[in-house]
Amino acid sequence: MTTEVQSALMRELGAERLGMFLYQMVLIRHFEEKCGELYTKGKIRGFLHLYTGQEACAVGSINCLEDRDKILTHYRDHGHALARGLDPNRVMAELYGKATGVAGGRGGSMHLYDVEKGFLGGYAIVAAHLPLAVGLGVAAQMKREDFVTLCIFGDGSVGEGEFHEALNMAVLWNTPTIFFCENNLYGMGVPFKASLSTEIPKLAAAYNMPAVSVDGMDVLEVYAATREAVAHARAGKGPYFIEAMTYRYRGHSMADPELYRLKEEIEEAKQRDCIERLKRQMMEAGMLDEQGFAEIDARATAVVDEAVEFSERSPQPALDTLFDHLYKE
Amino acid sequence: MAIMRMRDALREALREEMLRDERIFLMGEDIGLYGGSYAVTKGLLEEFGEERVRDTPIAESAIVGIGIGAAMGGMHPMVEIMTINFSFLALDQIVNNAAKLLHMSNGQINVPLVIRMASGGGSQLAATHSHSLEGLYAHFPGLKVVCPSTPADAKGLLKRAFRDQNTVIFIEHTANYGLRGEVPDDPDFLVEFGVANVVREGTDVTIVGYSGSVHQATRAAELLEQQEEISAEVIDLRTLRPLDMDTVIRSVKKTNRAVIVEDAWKFGGFGGELAAQIMERAFDWLDAPVARVACKDVPLPYNRNLEFHALPSEEDVVEAVLGMFKE
Ligand SMILES: Cc1ncc(C[n+]2csc(CCOP(=O)(O)OP(=O)(O)O)c2C)c(N)n1
Ligand SMILES: [Mg+2]
User: pLDDT band at A61, cuts 50/70/90?
Assistant: First the structure.
C-alpha cells in the first residue's frame, strides 16, 4: 500500500472509525493476554489458541461487513468474535464454561457462536468450515438475498481436500464467499513452506478465483483488500481469496513448547506490530495523541476486567440441561 | 393408492416435497443429467431446473458441507451420496458438523438436511462397494437414521424427513429399489419416525430387522410357519434413531424369544445394541438367549457363492429360530 493510498484511506475512514479499529485491536490484545493468564490459573481449560499478533486480520476484515453478512472462522476465534461485536462478557464466560457463555458452556474456546450477529461459529476441524461457507453462499443466491460470507482459516487448511473442493465449487457456482487465509507461517509447528509445494494465492488462482496477498500486520491493508472482496462478492461476481501474512506471538496453543522457532523471529515480528503501527500512523496524521491512546487502553482493560468478573460470578450450567439441544423440534 | 417400485416412490416423495417447499433443493453426483445412479432423481432436473437439481463434482465432503451451510442459511437441501460406501469421505461433515452444531451452539444453529444414500451388499460389487452402515450412523447422537424396507414406507418416511428440523440420514437398500408395493398418493401421507412396523404378527418368536433384512425375516417367518408350525412375529424398525424399542419389548414379552437380522457385521454392530436393550428390559421374559443373524466377519467378496455365503439368508434365520426351540 503506497503512502498516498494509505493517507487517502485514513482520511476517508476518519479519526473516529480508525480509533474504533485501534480500540478493537487493543481489546483483543488485552483479552488474549488475560486468557493466557487465566489458563495458567486453571480458570480456562481445554485447548486455548491465542490470537495476539494477528489482531489486524480480524479487525481489518470483519469491519468491512454489514450486519446481514455471515462469518465462519476457525478455532483461533476470540479475536473474530470480539471484532464482530460479540459481548466480551459472554465470550469470556464461554471460556469459563459458564451457562452465560455464548454457547452456554458447551463449545468452549474453539466453538464460539452468536447467530444474531451472523457469527456462525468457530470450527475446530481444520478446513471443515470452508464447504459450509460455500453452502451459505448457495442459500444467499437461492433466497435472492445479498449477504456475503467471510470464511476465515489458517494456512494449515491448504493441505486438506476440503480446501480445494470448496474453492473449486465456489467458483463453479459463483458463490458470494470471501476466503480469508491468515497465514501466520505455521500450522502448529510445521512451517507452511514445508506443507505446501506452491504459494497460497496461486492455489486460488488455479481455480480461477481472484486472489491477493496482503500484509496482515497492517489493518489498513487488510481493510482495503477485504472491502474490495466484499464488493466483488456482493455484486454477484463470485468468490474472492485473500491471504493475509501475519504472525502469532504466542505458541500454537497453551500446550506448545515452541521448539520449532527462534525467539529472534518473534521479536522481529513484534517490530511490525499492528497496534503500534496504527497508533503511529494515527499520531502522524494528527488523529491521536498519547492521552487518546491511554484512554483507549484503559477502556479495553476495563472491559476485560468486567468480563472476568462477569464470568467469575456466572453460574455453571445445570446438570439437567445436559440433553438440551440434541434435536430441534 | 398406486402400485409402484421403491425408486419411483422415492422420486414421488422428492417431487411432492419440492412442489410444497421451495427451500428444498437437491445436490449430488450424477443426479441431474444422468438421472441418478439408481434412477431415483430421473426427470427432476427437467421438471425443476438446474438451480434446484444440481450435479456436483465428485467431492463427497464438500457436497455434504455445502448442504450443511445451505441449511444454516435457511434452505432445506437434500444431498444424495451415490452409495453409502462413499459417505466415509463425508464422515467428518456428518459427524462433526451436521450432528453436533445444534448442541454445540446451545440451540442456535440447526441443520435441516436430508442425506440419502444407497446401501447393502448382494450385487457382486465386492468389498469396497457393499457396505451396510446404518448402525454406524445410528451411533451418533444428533443424527436421525431412517432405513425403509417398502415403497410406501420409503415415500412416507422421505416426506417426513423434509418436515424435520434436523439432519436425517436416509438409507436405501439397493436390493429394494425394484421392489413393488402399494403407495398412497395423498400428498400429506407421512410415516412418523420412531414407530416400528409389525409386519407380521406371531406368538412364538420375534424376528427384528431393518432395511433389506426385513425381507429375509419375513420369508423366514413364512418358512417357519409352513414347515415347522412356528409362529413368528416380524418387526421392521424403519428408523434406528429414534428407535422404537417399546414395540420390540412388547413383542418379546409376548413371544419370549428374539432373533435380530441385519446385513451389517455382527461384531460391534447395531444388533448388539438391540440384544443388550432386550436383555436390560425383558431378561425375565426370555426363554432363550437373544440370537443375532448377520454378515459373517469378513469384507464381502466378489464371487457370488462366497458373497451369499457371507450374507445372512432366510435359511440362517430359520436355523437360528430352530436353535432356540431345541432343549
Ligand atoms: C482435520 C484436523 N487435523 C488436525 C487437527 C489438529 N490441529 C489443530 S490446529 C492445527 C494447525 C492448523 O494450523 P493453521 O491452519 O495454520 O492455523 P493456525 O493454528 O496457525 O491459526 C492442527 C494440525 C485438526 N484440528 N483438524
Ligand atoms: Mg497457521
Answer: very high
Asked if pLDDT for residue B60 goes beyond 90, the answer is yes
Q: Which CATH superfamily is domain B2-183 in?
A: Thiamin diphosphate (ThDP)-binding fold, Pyr/PP domains (3.40.50.970)
pTM, rounded to two decimals: 0.98
- Any atom of ligand 1 within 6 Å of the Cβ of A311: no
A154 CA to middle of ligand 2, Å? 5
Question: In chain B, where does the domain assigned CATH 3.40.50.970 lie?
Answer: 2-183
Residue pair B286/B258 in contact by the 8 Å Cβ criterion = yes
Say yes or no to pLDDT of A142 above 70: yes
C-alpha cell read off for B243: 428407535
One of B16, B17, B60, B134 is an active-site residue; which one? B60
| pLDDT tens, position by position, B232-277 | 999 999 999 999 999 999 999 999 999 999 999 999 999 999 999 9
Check: CB of residue B110 under 8 Å from CB of residue B134: no
CATH match for B197-325 among 3.40.50.300, 3.40.50.920, 3.60.15.10, 3.40.50.720 = 3.40.50.920
The burial of A285, by beta-carbon neighbours within 10 Å (0-12 exposed, 13-18 middle, 19 or more buried), is given as middle
Side chain identity, residue B108:
Q
Distance of CA A324 to the CA centre of its chain: 29
Give the 3-state secondary structure of residue B43. Answer: coil
Instruction: Copy the grid coordinates of residue A141.
Output: 443466491
Å from B144 to nearest chain A CA?
Answer: 9
Q: State the best of A132, A167, A329 to mutate against chain B, taking most chain B CBs within 10 Å.
A: A132
Tell whether the model's pLDDT for residue A1 goes beyond 90: no
Q: Which of A50, A111, A126 to mutate to test the pocket of ligand 1 (most atoms within 8 A of CB)?
A: A126
Nearest to B118 by CA among B6, B196, B17: B6
pLDDT tens for each residue of B95-112: 999 999 999 999 999 999
Angle between helices A88-95 and A290-313 (to 10 degrees): 50
Delineate the domains of chain A, giving CATH numbers in brackets.
37-273 (3.40.50.970)
Q: Contact, A106 vs B104, CB < 8 A?
A: yes
Residue B311 bridge partners (DSSP): none
ipTM of predicted complex? 0.98
Using CB atoms, pick whichever of B63, B72, B105 lies closest to residue A136: B72
Cell of B101: 452444531
pLDDT interval class at B327 (50, 70, 90): low
A 305-324 residues with CB < 8 A to B: 324
Q: Is B198 exposed, middle or buried (0-12, 13-18, 19+ CB in 10 A)?
A: middle
* Span A218-251, pLDDT tens digits: 999 999 999 999 999 999 999 999 999 999 999 9
Enumerate the CATH 3.40.50.920 domain ranges in chain B, comma separated: 197-325
Other Cβ atoms closer than 10 A to B200: 17
Residues 103-142 of A with CB under 8 A from B: 103-107, 111, 113-115, 120-121, 123, 125, 128-140, 142
